[in-house]
Write a structure and sequence with these properties.
Bactericidal permeability-increasing protein, domain 1; eight-stranded antiparallel beta sheet; 6 helices; 46% strand
Length: 423
């Protein structure tokens, strides 16, 4: 059994809403079984640190016909995983990893303990051509904190159907005399303790990948503006999807006192149950967008004699999001109405190639009559584009999610559904 603890404490920082409830969830994310499979197959190689660490730490010693064999300092040369299958059930899942090809190399030392006391060293290359793993996966919670959850595996079965061993030593005489014995011994080891270590390392890496947790999601980590992505209701596994919930609200992260300031205390509405066949599906309530507008306007936003006083997403239509923007100019206020699409994009957040999802609304399509000139409306759009980006809703992580295949569905007045595929 493997227990992979994903978080040590509930949260390392505090929030204005420290104990959100399911009624506070303005953002929920669903990943289907095929989506998990594609995501894992695409990205598993980037998370094999556990397996590499396990192999590096191995010190395999055994004695055959008076010769002490030592294998150590193992390195992964190549891994090919392209057949990961997830079968979702209520509250659990079956994980199958098939046809894994794993190339490794170990330092090899041979020491004869009887006359003529020969000694040799070199390398042993081990290629496993068909490693299979099956295990049952469930989510376990502890300490009354659903954000602190454990992925538990049980009944793990490891099968190695095909492997190849190659030796390279300085003096092949000693090695040639015992190579068949070494091969036979390693075969038993691979289908026993050694195979279990390889399988456990792969599964731990896979679990980390599937449940990578970032509860402060930012488009720019130099900025204090963040999206609250605490999975306060933990992770739910159903027959169709894996689901997580978060508030989706923006707050200002103060690193000095480890607090995130900002909370729009409004009611999140309910909506109908709705799924598509997309690999990844995001459902966002208008409150999450309005949270960003509110935080954005904590500072005075003025340009060319015009001040933005308020921005509110009032409702969704089948053509987009309707926004009311209150501006002040020439000593009077005016309410502008915009009808804007919600778009999905990716933002690269580090040099390791990690992409976060970004949900964008801008001010480009005025639908109301105004006394502002066309140039002033254009300036408003340009100013908002330049200053609002860090306040967009950001979701970690979105490795492999297609922007081109993203589909936006306006569920009702208050909710939007965005689905896409992993490529």
């Amino acid at each position: 059994m493997i227990l992979l603890v994903l978080t040590v404490g509930c949260y390392q920082i505090t929030f204005d809403n420290d104990t959100p409830k399911i009624e506070d969830s303005a953002m929920r994310v669903f990943v289907t079984g095929p989506g998990i499979e594609r995501y894992a197959n695409k990205n598993i190689k980037s998370t094999l640190t556990n397996l590499q660490t396990s192999i590096s730490a191995m010190n395999i010693q055994f004695n055959i016909v008076g010769v002490l064999i030592n294998l150590q300092n193992g390195r992964i040369m190549d891994v090919d995983l392209n057949d990961i299958n997830i079968f979702l059930q209520n509250n659990s899942a079956i994980l199958n990893v098939k046809h894994v090809v794993l190339d490794m190399i170990f330092e090899l030392k041979l020491e004869q303990k009887t006359f003529p006391y020969l000694y040799d060293s070199g390398s042993l290359s081990l290629t496993i051509r068909d490693l299979g793993i099956q295990t049952y996966l469930s989510v376990v919670y502890g300490d009354n904190c659903k954000n602190k959850y454990i992925l538990q595996t049980r009944n793990m079965v490891i099968v190695i159907d095909d492997f190849q061993i190659q030796f390279q030593c300085n003096n092949m005489v000693l090695l040639n005399s015992i190579s068949l014995f070494i091969t036979s011994y390693l075969k038993d080891l691979l289908n026993g303790e050694l195979g279990q270590q390889f399988g456990s390392g792969l599964i731990e890496s896979l679990l980390q990948l599937l449940n990578e947790f970032v509860y402060l999601a930012k488009s720019d980590y130099k900025s204090p503006i963040t999206t609250d992505q605490r999975y306060f209701n933990g992770m739910q596994i159903t027959e169709n999807v894996i689901q997580v919930n978060s508030t989706g609200q923006r707050c200002i992260h103060n690193a000095a006192n480890q607090r995130c300031y900002g909370y729009l205390n409004q009611t999140v509405t309910s909506t109908r149950t709705f799924f598509t066949n997309h690999d990844v599906q995001y459902q966002i309530e208008k409150l999450a967008f309005n949270s960003g507008f509110k935080l954005y306007l904590n500072q005075q936003r003025s340009f060319g004699g015009i001040q933005i006083v308020n921005i509110t997403l009032t409702q969704f239509h089948n053509m987009g999001a309707e926004l009311e923007v209150v501006v002040m100019f020439n000593g009077r206020s005016e309410t502008l109405k915009f009808l804007e699409p919600v778009t999905f994009s990716l933002v690269r957040v580090n040099d390791q190639g990690t992409d976060f999802g970004r949900f964008v609304i801008r001010l480009t399509n005025l639908i109301s009559v105004t006394s502002l000139k066309n140039e002033q409306i254009a300036d408003l759009s340009s100013y908002f584009e330049k200053t609002f980006g860090e306040y967009d809703i950001v979701y970690a992580n979105a490795l492999g999610v297609s922007v081109e295949k993203a589909e936006v569905i306006y569920l009702d007045d208050n909710w939007i559904h965005i689905g896409s595929y992993i490529e």
